[in-house]
Amino acid sequence: MKNIIFDIGNVLLDFQPETYLKQYFEPSVMGDLMMIIFSSDEWIELDMGTMMIQDAIQSLTLKHPHYHDEIIFVMETWTHMMTPLEDNVAIVRELKEKGYSLYLLSNFHKEAIKTMFERYDFFKLFDGGVISANEHLVKPDQKIYKLLLERYHLQPEESVFIDDMLANIKMAEELNIHGIYLPYQSDLRTELQKRHIL
């Protein structure tokens, strides 16, 4: 194994919008905002890179005027919930020291990923990556996996992909990339030790 490919949300950075919204809103409002924002077509468009944040805010507030201020607040501040999962970030550093090549493969908004890269130094450890919004492709579309392999000349059999969504892992495995399904708060170190990577 030579290449370790990481998803970002809930693998490297905490992404728990319900927990975040509970700090600011009562349960009924929190539930509405979860659906309105994080289950919206606009959220998918942001991941696809076919919409920018101000466009999404305009679209969502027009559709849901009774939550105008709440939508703006969440859309302008949600990246603050994305804090490093420190155990996994420590593993990234170990893998780098051991000589593995490290890559990112993530569904992420264009403006938000720029913020993350500026906010957290550990992203400099990565040798490259493919972010959905920059390519207008999202996982589990196999094209985004193939793009990563081709861009960095990776052999799938020499690569392992870590993601918290089973559908994304299944697609990787269809392309002969080894998969590690990592549900939120699972132990990545144990999974890597099982495969003799750590």
From TrEMBL:
Signal peptide: none annotated. InterPro entries: HAD-like_sf (IPR036412), HAD-SF_hydro_IA (IPR006439), HAD_sf (IPR023214), PGP-like_dom2 (IPR023198). CDD domains: HAD_sEH-N_like. PANTHER family: ALPHA-D-GLUCOSE 1-PHOSPHATE PHOSPHATASE, FLAVIN MONONUCLEOTIDE HYDROLASE 1, CHLOROPLATIC. It comes from Massilimicrobiota timonensis. It comes from the Bacteria. This is HAD family phosphatase.
